[in-house]
Amino acid sequence: MFELLVLLIKVIVVMNLALVLGSLCTWLERKGSALIQDRVGANRAGAFIESDKWYVKPALPVVRMMGWLGFINTFVCDSVKGLWKEDFVPAGTSKFLHAVAPIIAVLPIMLAFAVLPLAPNFTLFGYNIHPRLAPIDAGLLFVLAMGSVAVYGVAIAGWTGNNKFSLLGALRAAAQMISYELPMGLVFVALIVVYGTLDVYTIVEEQGKMLWGVVPQWGIVMQPVGFVVLLLAGMAETKRGPFDLPEAESELAAGYFTEYSGMKFLLFWLGEFCEIALFGLLLALLFFGGWQIPWVRLPEGVWWAALVGHLVLMTKVVFFCVLQIVIRWTLPRFRYDQLMNLGWKMLLPVSLANLAITAIMKVLL
Amino acid sequence: MSFMGFFISVFALASAIGVVSVRNPLYSAFCLIVHLLAIAGLYAVLESHFLAVSQIVVYAGAIMVLVLFVLMLLNLKTEEGRGPGVLRTCIAVAVGGVVLLVALPPLVGRFARMSVIQISDAFRRSEGTVRAIGAELYGDYAVQFELSSLVLLIGVVGAVMLSKRKNPTLGPRPGGLFAGGKQ
What we know:
The complex is a heterodimer. Chain A is built from 13 helices and four strands. By secondary structure, chain A is mainly alpha-helical. Among the domains of chain B are: 1-76, Four Helix Bundle (Hemerythrin (Met), subunit A); 126-165. Chain B is mainly alpha-helical. Chains A and B meet through helix 5, helix 6 and helix 13 of A and helix 2 and helix 3 of B.
């Protein structure tokens, strides 16, 4: 009974974490892009709200503050508008596939959160609790697999658009995602070689050890080249930043989701931002020690230590989300041949060499 | 087998029938993707997580994306006509029957007596499926494994050579589909 309850709580927490991080990224993107472009950003919706109801009055300052910060615009207005908009389906295409595509784009990203640990294990009421949903022994590979399944949402969306812009966007996205999965997978393999396990929890635990007794064995210390390659490949995987060729608005209208409106469009959006959050979580877990603070040892198995660890991890995740958003709003878009050259002629050889050197070092040391 | 395994098997069979019976090639490919994911689900039910994930990465995640990519580029229409004739149907049924006859005895003989629990216990004893599979591949079957990688390499080189060969009747090759600027 208790196990079932814990599992239920875990499902709710993990899925909500994905959603909350995703919408937080939306807000960060709104305000961040405004800051970078010397604008103010969303700050009106809800900022001047008035009410005489006694049960609303105490909450008014908070609501006004949230409106002023743009929270209400992002979290309430956007989704409500999306729900009420006309759902347009282009003629001569499969209605079923048109409806299914956004779901396929979001679902794998949410599933990938299930295998990632969110805090150190702890004991509560005498029960050992592992703060992750699915403790499978191929956790790292599962994330990669889900990333590659997410391509289908994009591909089907572009095809059901029934026009050339959508199709070209989908083909670009598919080609881009396949290309950048290779260096990504090779960086994962190099990490597996370094830490000797596929299990993300063990990888994080291994990072707590000290190198020569001074520096923590974080991924960024052990695999600096891998980090750079994974950052680039991951940004290409999320189809954002300088790599947003699949939705290049100056060439392809909106690329693969040109024909999408209302909530279906918002689902693509959500998937994209959840992917940013997922990628931030991956970077924090694999390269920046997860929930560990360097040179600080938290007691093991205590609930408050797990909570502190979780907050530390989330701080790192938000940092990487901000980093991705800043890169996206700073750099101009690549040309498609530049994108392919970067993937196949730069990142792939570099990651292969990185793997070879890592393997040799592992055998020699 | 557990309820989940039974459920996934039904899914796998239905999508497999869909692959051969649907007329639109693209829908056929979608059915195949569902089928491959269902097979991965079966592996997962049998507690062979690594195999399940590899199935998704290799087949559903890479090969089928390429198949879909090509089908979308070709923009094939739904096949018209009456479908295969009586003779071809007979041949197909005969071939399928022979394959089934060859495959059935070992399945019925060995695995029927070996329950799912036993198989997963065997995996648990070998401290994780990844370690077990790795030890098998790079230990006992190292030569075969390297040979198969050699075959794959030859395949890759062959594909590159074929695409590099100039066809004199076609004239100069056009720029790539996605060429934005210089090639």
